[in-house]
Amino acid sequence: MESGMNNESRQVRFPQLLCYGLGDLYGGGSFLIIGMLFMFYLTEVVGLSPLIAGFVFAIGKVWDAVSDPLMGYISDRTRTRFGRRRIYFLIGIAPIAVTFTLMWVPVGFSSQWTLFAYYSLAYICFSTVFTMVMVPYAALNAEMSHDYNIRTRLSGARIVFSNIATLLGGTLASKIAYQWSDNPATGFLLMAVSFATLFSLPWIVVFLGTWELPFDEKKQERGGPLSIFSQFRTIFRNKSFRIHIAMYVCAYSAIDILMALFAYYMTFYIGKPRAIPIAMGSMILTQTFAIAFYVFLSNRRGKAFSYKLGLSIWLFGLACTYFLNSQSPVWLIAIICSLIGFGMAAGVMIPWAMLPTIIDVDELITAEQRSGVYSGAMTLMRKFVQGLIAMPTIGFVLGAIGFVSKQESHSIEVLEKLKSFLFFGPGVLIVLGFMVAFLFKVTPAVHTMIVEETKRLKSGGEKNTVANDIKNICEEVTGIDYENLYVSRVVVK
Question: What does the CA dihedral 285, 37, 20, 362 come to, rounded to 10 degrees?
């Protein structure tokens, strides 16, 4: 056990919630700005075709498939006097600022493929630094406390700051970027420098205000770096994780498609680009205040229930956008965006709030604590969702409906197709996520049973003395025969 890690007696109180939550200014804010503005920047400022712009995101995912699992492996095996995770918060401060800015630097290349190469490389650099910092950050939730409710509050604090960043990104980022209408590249670069500062400096506070509980090195799985890829394969044996990751992919794919299309929708269909900060501000501010509601509801009715309720509200709000047009008043647009934001809050928060619970289910299966592996998987899936699902899909669809880059006006037919895509693209994913959520069975009471059974087995309890109801619950949430639980090699039921 490393020095400086004996924090068993420390309590997670309000100051620690604030310090931990600050980290997701970067996690939430950077992806919101990239998801909302980067495609628009590439097509309307840089001049890339929609299809090529979509693949700027996709090209980096080949590297992410290696870097994200590898970072989980590295983080799990890091040994410093500051712990396994928190040291990367300090290492990442300068690279966070530099790599985010590089994505918005206007380069003077005229070739589509040269522009594609530069912005693809810039996105890969950003994505690599994001992995280096956010994989350990995601794992830290499960390692500051073992308590279900405290972990939920930590997740809630994280999402609150994520929403603060998205509120700033959704209002100030577009406002700064659009200030220089005669030279938009200058506005986007100034926006990038401003937010790069916001994303990098808070990590000093996150580092100082958090800690890591002691861990048992005997339970650390051995093996070389390549073993992490086999570990990634094994996490999908966890039934609850398979359901959880499907809920996550559906929610975040819907978010990315909605956010990326919103600038196009407001600019070309509604014809009110200067109302974007008001619309996005209404959406994200409501989302921020809704987090407390979903934390409260999750701790009483379970996270799956909160997720389903939120997605239902989100879908209804999204349907209302179908009836907006260029004559719609800004106040009506703001109300509809607020409704969307209230529902979307569950899609943003719940998958990350579920992660510590999923890690506990995995410990019941493997007798190991693999926070780094699971947080690496979540970070990889986050970037996979945006890079291989949302943005290429948007680029393909925009090209298919006849949308042309840097064109001031479009035909009514193109605009009607754009409006339909804004609703049906995210809408289908929301419905799928809602349906999958019925399969998730880990409630607060079930989680308590899982943790207690893991403790009993860890202390030498015999499997043949387990109560039948607990045995059935363990098999239900893991998808594995009880006799094969709490062993390193698991057998799928």
Answer: 110
465: in domain: no
Nearest to 173 by CA among 287, 284, 99: 284
Gyration radius (Cα) of the chain, Å: 22
Are the C-beta atoms of 265 and 422 separated by less than 8 Å?
Answer: yes
Tokens at residue 204, please?
């000093």
| 3-state secondary structure at position 107 | coil
Domain count within the chain: 1
Other Cβ atoms closer than 10 A to 75:
25
Burial of 217 (0-12, 13-18, 19+ CB in 10 A): exposed
pTM score, two decimals?
A: 0.71
Which domain CATH number covers 337?
1.20.1250.20
| pLDDT (tens digit per residue) in 282-321 | 988 898 889 889 988 988 888 999 999 999 999 999 999 9
Q: Which helix (H) or strand (E) holds 464?
A: none
Res. 78 pLDDT band, cuts 50 70 90? confident
**Those residues with Cβ within 8 angstroms of residue 469's Cβ, 6 or more apart along the chain or in another chain:** none
Which pair of tokens denotes residue 23? 């980290």
* DSSP annotation of 221: P
User: What gap in Å lies between CA 160 and CA 345, rounded to an integer?
Assistant: 10
Average pLDDT, integer, range 103-124 = 90
Find out whether 25 and 202 touch, Cβ atoms under 8 Å: yes
How many angstroms separate the CA atoms of 449 and 471, rounded? Answer: 10
Let me know if residue 479 belongs to a domain: no
Alpha helices in 78-200 (DSSP H): 87-91, 93-102, 112-144, 148-168, 174-177, 184-200
Judge whether 419 and 265 are in contact, CB under 8 Å: yes
Residue 492 pLDDT > 50, yes or no?
no
Where helices occur in 183-275 by DSSP H, the ranges are 184-200, 203-208, 227-235, 239-264
- For 160, the domain range is 14-213+224-442
